[in-house]
Amino acid sequence: MSQPTLISAQGLSVHYALRGGLIGPKPYVGAVENVDIEIAAGSFFGLVGESGSGKTTLGRAMLRAAPISRGDVHFDDGEVSYSLKDLGKQDLKDYRKRAQLIFQDPYAALSPRMTVRDIIAEPLEVMGLTSSRTETDERVREIAAKCRLNVEHLRRFPHAFSGGQRQRISIARALVSGPKFIVADESVAALDVSIQADVLNLLKAIQEDMGLTFLFISHDLSVVAHVCDHVAVMYLGRIVETAPTRTLFSTPRHPYTTALLSAIPSLDPDDRGKVQKLEGEIPSPTNPPPGCKFQTRCPHAIDLCRTQEPSLEHAGTEHRVACHRWQEVGGEAN
Amino acid sequence: MSRLIDVENLTLQFDTDEGRITAVDNVSFSLEAGEVMGLVGESGSGKSVTAKSLMKLNPRNAIYGPDTKITLHLEDGPVDVMSLQTDAEMKIVRGGSISLIFQEPMASFAPAISIGDQMVEQLMIHTDFSKAQSRELSVEMLDRVGISDPGTRFGQYAFELSGGMRQRAMIAMALSTKPKLLIADEPTTALDVTIQAQVIDLMKDLVTEFGMGIIFITHDLGVIAQTADKVAVMYLGKLVEQGSVRDVIRRPAHPYTRGLLAALPTLDDIDAPLTPIPGDIPSPLERPSGCVYHTRCQEVIGARCSVEAPQFMTVDTNHAAACHIHDANEGAA
Fold first, then answer.
1. Phi, psi for residue B115 in degrees, rounded to 5
2. ipTM of this model?
3. Taking CA atoms, which of A107, A115, A293, B25 is between 20 and 30 Å from B50?
């Protein structure tokens, strides 16, 4: 990789305690299990999976907004280097400045009682990044302009804006502290296609302009294919495949990735019936199956898959897959 | 195929505190038995209120236009939906001959009544079945939609089911009264793609088996391409294009449909730029004059677009669009 790694996880697990278990070991649900991931500086990294796959939890753990139970996350932007597991209070404050989150729902994420100017200025004030109101205003105007909001907009309240404009306000707020790393969690899922295209183009433009690194969490593979340079596919808290976007979409190796790609409805009406259907649903993480977590739905599962969990193996340049049988069953997309 | 429903000049306005808004403006379409029609448009285009009008299921401040005519063709003769007044009369279009599936199955089931009791209740209302027969049919329907162990699921509550399973139960419930027309309002939008593929397959099987008509409301053109026979595209309460699914997706005739397709990310060409439609959908309180789409249209052909509302024009067999650009092609006709 030409770019240095900005943020990486090693053996990262996020466990949440469950009720009960007075006797014996405390029961827990493993939302994220033993994840290794490396995100290069300046990358637009996609994280995909069904609901319940742990993609949001992984994103939050990388922001230190979810507890790190095992393993660690390292962040290094050339100025500072942090190990997130044991980050002191002061360093955590500094990290918040460098790593930010854009939420999914632009209607719920903005306070209806604050003007757009105050919403965007809040991180600056909370973190004490500016020393005067003039300086704050200047910074807010500068970021707002980047997100195509004009001075007139800053005086209004969120209710006066459409979904796409609100998402631009959320983006401006995430960017105002000058972060290096942004987690965008389903940031375009609630938007209509034409607005979605607009917001995606804006995110890409900002990323190139400000040299940011994105972790782009989405359930929509067609969106990920268009904007991301690398993709990781998650299933039940594990990363099952990761590769550069083009490789993943042209030569998916994991049966789950193949099934996900095949399930996307094609725009060609003559493709009907070509879908390779995946039976069943994602199992509950409180009671995961033994062996490979995908074996309950996998058409290629053999006895080995039911007992032994596969680890990520190299399947090509920067291409890794966790499947016992990837060499035999790896499919072609479409 | 026989005609199932005719919608003529459907106009629907709402009285609000901020004034009277037009949600649906002179919309006409028809559907045959066994046909699937996709109704497409952005949020605020009026697709859901259009569908709900067929069941007269809009709130009290709704005002239907005087020329609105909705005719449902049943075996016992045509039913004039607009003339239905009392709750008893409306049973026929609300759960009897027309069923509705909503987007969010969690919100559509009562949380404190078991799935089974809800299914039995509506069968008791709409059919002559006894309680025991209703129960039997409900369990059978749960089995038909692919819910394993239907006997147990029958006694469970909505929160005990996963999202995909809830949507299947919703479909089972909607189909148990054997409706002639099923309205599915974004039935797969809240589901993961793998579950979406299962639900779409299920709905296609059921159309074949029950021979009903379906109005499939969605903003996802991929879902439309895989399910619908014909497509109607709506913008700001107006129908702007209608045609067979192949024609509309391969040869879109209205600039708005072209815009929607250009904005859609597809896997066929991941390097293609995504082209958004400029601007936002205008507020229904400030409907543009002339063609409602002219404020965002990239193919405006002069002042005419902002003055004169375009009429529906045939561009091909069974393919029509409401846009002035087709006027020139029409020539003297």
1. -55, -45
2. 0.83
3. A107
Mutation test of the interface with chain A: which of B280, B281, B295, B319, choosing the one with the most A Cβ atoms within 10 A?
B280
Cβ of A269 within 8 Å of Cβ of B222? The answer is no
- CATH fold label, B1-33+40-88+213-333: Rossmann fold (3.40.50)
pLDDT in tens, B129-166: 999 999 999 999 998 888 888 999 999 999 888 877 88
In sequence order, the 6+-apart residues with CB closer than 8 A to the CB of B196 are: A263, A265, B188, B223
CA distance B277 to chain A (A): 5
Label the pairing between strands B213-218 and B181-185: parallel
DSSP classification of residue A22: S
Please, which residues have CB within 8 angstroms of residue B83's CB and are 6 or more apart in sequence?
Answer: none
pLDDT at B333 > cutoff 90: no
What domains appear along chain A, each with residue ranges and CATH number? 5-18+26-228 (3.40.50.300), 252-334 (no CATH)
CB-CB under 8 Å, A265 with B200: yes
- Which residues in chain A are contacts of B260 at CB distance < 8 A? 193-194
- Chain A residues close to B199, C-beta within 8 Å: none
Instruction: Tell me the pLDDT tens digit for each residue of B227-257.
Output: 999 999 999 999 999 999 999 999 999 999 9
